[in-house]
Every structure is written in C-alpha cells, then in structure tokens.
C-alpha cells in the first residue's frame, strides 16, 4: 500500500543507492520520495523483462536470421530502421496525448500489451505462412510493435523522471540491462546448446516466450505508485506536435543534443552489417546463438558500469561509447578492406560485434540519462518526443542510404558509419554537463 514501509525493499535499495541516506531526492516531490524504493524495483523488474524480450526478438540477430529461414532475405535491410523509427516518428503526437494525463503509467502498460500482441502476430506468420508472405507478416508485426513501443518510450522517461530521483536513474537502467543480459546469456545457452539449424517451430516458440514477458512487464508497471504531475494541452494533438518542433530552433543545448544523437546512430546501424559479413563466411545455424550470446554478454558485462558512470556524468558516458563504436567500426571496415572479408577467421566478427554492443549500450544509456536529467516536467516529455521523432525520420533516411551503399559494398557502409561515429564523439565533447546540480 502507498506510504507503508517495506523494510527488505528499503534495505536493498539502500545497498544499491550506496549512501547513508538512500532516500536522497533530487527534483522529485517528498510524497514521491517515500515511494522511491518500491517504484525503483517495480520499474526495474518491468525493464528487465522487456530487455529480455528485446534480445529474444532482436532485429539485428534473431529476426534477421528468421527472415532467411522463412525465405525472405531481401527484407532484412529494413528490420532495424522499421524497429527503431516506427517507435520514434509519431512520438510528438503521442506526447501531446500523454501530456494531458496527470498519471502516465497506463500508456506504458498499454504499449507493453500492444508489443505482446504484435509479437504473437509475428509468431503466427512464421508458423502459418512461408516465403515473402511470412516475411511481410513479420514486418507488419514489427511496425505495430514499434508504434506500441512509442507509447512506452514517452511514458517511461516521464514516469521515471517523476518517480526516481537524479543520480539513481542511470543505475536503474544499467541494472535492468545487466540483469536482462545475464538472463539472456543463460537462456541462449539453454536454447542453442548442441543444436543445429533452428526450426520454424523453434522460432515461433521463441517469439511466444517474448510475448509473455511483455504481458508480465505491463502488469508490474501498472503497480507503480505514480503521483499526479503537470498536465498541459487541450489543443489538437497534431497542432501541439508541430508547435513543439520550435524547441529545435529556440533551445540551443537541446538542438546540440539532437545533432549529437543523430551522428551516433552509427552504433545501431552498423551491427547488422557485422552479422552480414559473418554470414558470408559461415552461415551455420549455431552462429545465430553466438551473436545472440555476444549481445547478451555485452549487455550484462557493461550496462551497470555505464549506469553508475552515467549518474556521475552522462555526457562522459556518451563520449566514451561513441569513441568505442567509431573505433571498432573503423577497425573492422579497414581490416576487411585491406585483408579481405575473411580477416581473422570465424570469430573476428562476433568479437567485434561484442565490442560494438558494449559501445552501443553506453551510447544509448548515456543519452537516455542525459535527456531525462536535462529537463523537468512537461519539457521532459517534449524533449523526448521531439528528439525521437527527428531521430526516427533521420534513421529512415540514413537506413535507406546505407542500404543503397550496401549494394556496392558492406565494408564501405561500416567505414562510413565509423566516420559518422567519430564526428558524433567530437560533437559530444561540446555537450554541457547536466547530471550534477
């Protein structure tokens, strides 16, 4: 019940907070401060389940391999752009709806349920259809999945900003990623150990398992004790969305953040091309397990470190993640260009994918924490929506350009993305600190 003390939860939270006063609260009301330990673990559990689900249906690994399995390899190039941009592009309109509600956790819960339904649709496509019909069914499910995720993205940052104080948000995200990654390591070993090529039935069961995780996460998030906050609007959602774009012109620090984030798309877009090069060298089924394991290990090994570091300086986390991402892309690209695509043997690309996944975790966690800390109230919702909408459009454009460039050379794509990441790192150096008061 709200307001009641839960000693074990408080003690565990105090251990994680690592302070004598575990209830230290920055930029949230006193009534919300009392509920921080309980809310911390509810949000943590929901995040763990969704991160586990994300890894089980990752477009970079599982869905890409699945497309080849059902006989629709030409659709692989659009998985990551659709997955990412579908949840970002409509967010200014979504945010206008969300802003009218004083309690916003229900948007996240409904979004989680929507993701579950869409994943069930993907499983049905794999089981009942074949060829490009199955592939298009997966893509359609991914579109719905991404739109539902847009509600979760807007609501999560706002609910977290209202329920979790500064200097605790980064470690919450880091712990969620670490635990989710660790669970995926165990699940990957269980599912792929001593197996040949996965069957269509295996893929369907994998998707149904992920769908179940989103249902449970939605129920847990509905239990978060969120106090009413600021509301705004009353105008038409599309009108408000267009008006919010003025932030890009009027708010210089925010504009700089959006530019930096756009340049750091390299860490997301480069990963599938590592997988493509590895497939050309070794297309055996167990290689899917290797890449999934690499992604899981990277998350579990690095996310808590990135989370704690982001609570000290999310700006420095962005810089370090960008430096790692650009370095590994340039190393892989130029190595493959000079020595040939089979450079380093079968394990070269999974190892590089592992390092890139660590870098991407840092970039992603750093920029999420930075965005939450740089604004408060309704401005936090507007920042999230405008940033994600702009990035979603740029992701589709960049994804299309890289897809076209890949027709000439996958290696050239990796090199270009590496240079893009280096530029993003330079831009991140000029970001102002926002973590500290």
UniProtKB/TrEMBL annotation:
Transmembrane regions listed in the UniProt entry: 62-82, 106-128, 134-152, 172-193, 199-222, 258-278, 284-309, 321-340, 346-363, 383-405, 411-431
Keyword Signal found: no
Gene3D superfamilies given in the database record: MFS general substrate transporter like domains (1.20.1250.20)
Coiled coil stretches, renumbered: none
Sorted UniProt keywords: Membrane, Transmembrane, Transmembrane helix
Key word Nucleus present: no
Superkingdom in the source lineage: Bacteria
Protein name per its UniProtKB record: MFS transporter
Annotated organism of origin: Marinobacter nauticus (Marinobacter hydrocarbonoclasticus)
